[in-house]
Design goal:
heterodimer; A: 404 residues; alpha/beta; Rossmann fold; 2 domains; four-stranded parallel beta sheet; globular; B: 292 residues; mainly alpha; transmembrane (chain B); Branched-chain amino acid ABC transporter permease (chain B); transmembrane helix (chain B); transmembrane transporter activity (chain B); BCAA_transport_permease (chain B)
Chain lengths: 404, 292
């Protein structure tokens, strides 16, 4: 009996060893962090779905280094303190190889320092605060582990001003920004961009998240004679602005940051929201084969309402972030954070994403994949975002300009 | 002038929203000396239940209102039985504070799980084009909010003064023990007043939902502001909450315009501190005499 038990145990041990060898190595864990609930969830959920789609495609093609990608998803609820907890959990308990996500600038600034300390690359694929990729600059920090593929505010703010002042010829503009990190950093960027054109905003107003009455702010802008309203906020409050303007019977164009494309702006402002324009890195229009494949498989997999991706920009940028990361892990031939960072800073292969084709997107000094020439102008029309200018539509994919 | 009128109109609409919620605080305070700190969440639940009835079940907006009122009444009675009655029974001075706040949080979490955490649009029953009144723009829905709030408060006042049941409520609010000796079941009256207070909140919820957005977190800010209004106006005066609400609403819009939109919330809170310092019973409140 004794002997039989021993052989049995041996047999089990052998089978287990054999099984794990057949399964090759463990999966590569990638953290996915974003607000999947709450006011910015349309961005977070679309981002996560884009990431899932890319990971599934990579895995179907055999994974990276012969290993499958495994996503570890966490909801940060757009709260800084949740973000900090999640960063620590992903690093210490889940031991992720890299992380993607961050929708909210405040959450990113509070949490990415843990990845920096642990030398694990972290991708901001939606948050746009200009300071995000400059948080760990030389000389205090020899290397930064923070990367981004989103059009940051110092790209968007000048674009918004260019559109309002140069293209459409408005002389007087008002700025309406929310009181969060995002809104106030964006307001500074807008004011800087206006100063560069020799213009001062006729009114600069603030509103809080969950404000239900925008009369005071809008009346100030109106009496100051504003010909256009420049906004920095998120969907629900932006909808209150559009609805408030309709109530006052004051119709001037709204031009603002890319968040004007959020589903909860479009749905809550309905007809009042039409005509709003914002910079977009991606518009849900199948004008290249890669984009068509992406949109088709997104719609087939996640079945969003009215065949409209809630936040196409977030979905596209999330999708691309995984492709970039996979290429870097392959080139590094390792899951060591240090080596992946080096590979990202000197990516040898071109990566065809849906936003653009990434050809050396990062360098040691430049961790932003999107440059000013990439975003186009989108416009809200009949419940979705379309191209504002036919020229952009004909020339949909632009490559990054050479690094400064 | 036109601008001031516009600011005042918007302030009144905002203030009446606060007032009708503040009125709910008063109803329970009168009968039992306790407050339902979950008023904001009762409002949110009313709005979300109303949205489900209108949106999913295709019910007419006007038919939905009585159903939401019934729901609000039951919800308030539930809060009283679960959270407040044990505290009153054990003569605990402050137990009801914690338990009503706790129930409010539970309701919010339940709502987040049922309806999600996104803000939803409530279809407007009235045309959305603004009307011109004295040179200022007013939405038909805003007029409905003001009218509906006043009508509701009048209805409750009439009920208290003219019906025998209402007189029982008034008797209980004057002296709970004496009312008990006269054969009034004070326990039922208190449950009833909680039901009534949540009913007003739920009603306020469906009134304002087409103006604001509907979502699990909509009650938090409104409940707090309404509480300030109840303190400013006085916890024992129906007139007080209307005046207090309008003062706070107009103060918010005018400060936002004439001072700075960043300081919009300051004057209301300064007013609250002033009232507490100078006339703690509120602008229209009766000073309670407490013998020790």
């Amino acid at each position: 009996m004794q002997i039989r038990l021993k052989t049995l145990a041996g047999a089990i041990a052998l089978t287990l060893a054999g099984a794990s060898a057949a399964y090759a190595a463990d999966p590569i864990k990638i953290g996915v962090i974003g607000p999947f609930t709450g006011g910015s969830s349309s961005m977070g959920v679309s981002m996560r779905d884009g990431v899932r789609l890319a990971a599934e495609e990579v895995n179907k093609a055999g994974g990276v280094l012969g290993r499958q990608l495994q996503l570890v998803e966490r909801d940060d609820e757009a709260k800084n303190e949740r973000g900090v907890q999640i960063a620590q959990e992903l690093i210490n308990r889940e031991q992720v190889t890299a992380a993607v996500g961050y929708i909210n600038t405040g959450v990113a600034l509070a949490s990415q320092r843990f990845f920096q300390e642990a030398k694990i690359p972290v991708f901001n694929n939606v948050a746009t605060g200009s300071v995000i990729t400059h948080q760990f600059k030389a000389p205090e920090h020899p290397n930064s582990y923070v990367f981004r593929n989103a059009a940051h505010d110092s790209i968007q703010a000048p674009m918004i001003v260019e559109e309002a002042i140069t293209r459409r010829g408005f002389k007087k503009v008002a700025i309406l920004a929310d009181s969060t990190n995002y809104g106030q950093l964006g307001r500074e960027d807008l004011e800087k961009a206006l100063t560069a054109k020799g213009i001062t905003a006729v009114a600069v107003e603030k509103f809080n998240i969950k404000d239900v009455d925008m009369t005071a702010q809008l009346l100030k802008a109106k009496t100051a004679g504003a010909e256009a309203v420049l906004t920095y906020g998120i969907g629900p409050e932006l909808a209150q602005i559009a609805n408030g303007m309709a109530k006052l019977g004051w119709k001037v164009p709204i031009i603002g940051s890319w968040t004007l494309s959020m589903a909860n702006y479009i749905d809550n402002a309905r007809a009042n929201g039409d005509g709003a324009r914002m910079p977009q890195t991606f518009i849900q229009e199948p004008n290249t084969p890669k984009r068509k494949a992406f949109i088709d498989s997104y719609l087939a997999t996640f079945k969003p309402k009215n065949d409209r991706i809630d936040s196409p920009v977030s979905a596209a940028q999330g999708y691309d972030s995984i492709l970039l990361l996979a290429a870097a892990i392959k080139q590094a031939n390792s899951t060591d954070g240090e080596k992946i960072r080096q590979a990202l800073e000197n990516l040898q292969t071109k990566v065809e994403g849906v936003v653009t084709t990434y050809d050396k997107p990062f360098s040691a000094t430049d961790h932003d994949a999107i440059t000013a020439n990439i975003p186009v102008f989108g416009e809200v029309k009949g419940g979705k975002v379309v191209y504002a200018y036919p020229d952009d539509q004909k020339n949909p994919v632009r490559a990054k300009t050479a690094s400064k | 002038m036109e601008i001031l009128t516009q600011l005042i109109f918007s302030g009144i609409a905002l203030g009446m929203i606060y007032a009708v919620i503040a009125f709910g605080y008063q109803l329970t305070f009168a009968t039992s000396g306790t407050l339902n700190f979950g008023q904001g969440d009762a409002l949110m639940l009313g709005a979300l239940v109303g949205l489900t009835l209108v949106d999913r079940l295709g019910l007419n907006y006007w038919l939905m209102i009585p159903l939401v009122c019934v729901f609000g009444f039951l919800q308030g009675a539930f809060v009283e039985r679960i959270a407040v009655r044990p505290a009153i029974k054990t003569k605990s001075e402050f137990g009801w504070i914690m338990s009503t706040i706790a129930l409010g949080i539970i309701f919010k979490n339940v709502a987040e799980n049922v309806w999600g955490r996104d803000d939803l649009t409530f279809p407007s029953p009235l045309p959305e084009a603004p009307l011109k009144v004295l040179g200022a723009n007013v939405l038909p829905m805003e007029i409905l909010v003001v009218g509906g709030a006043i009508a509701l408060m009048l209805a409750v006042e009439l009920f208290n003064r003219k019906t025998i049941y209402g007189k029982a409520v008034v008797a209980t609010s004057n002296d709970r023990d004496a009312a008990g000796l006269m054969g009034i079941n004070a326990g039922i009256v208190i449950t009833f007043s909680y039901g009534l207070s949540s009913l007003t909140a739920a009603f306020a919820g469906v009134l304002i939902a087409p103006l604001t957005l509907t979502g699990a977190t909509m009650g938090a800010v409104l409940g707090l502001k309404a509480f300030a209004v109840a303190i400013i106006g006085g916890l024992s005066s129906g007139m007080g909450v209307v005046v207090g609400g309008v003062i706070l609403g107009v103060a918010e819009t005018t400060t936002g315009f004439y001072l700075s939109t960043g300081y919009k919330d300051v004057p209301g809170l300064v007013l609250l501190l002033l009232v507490l310092a100078v006339k703690p019973a509120g602008l229209f409140g009766k000073t309670a005499i407490k013998k020790v």
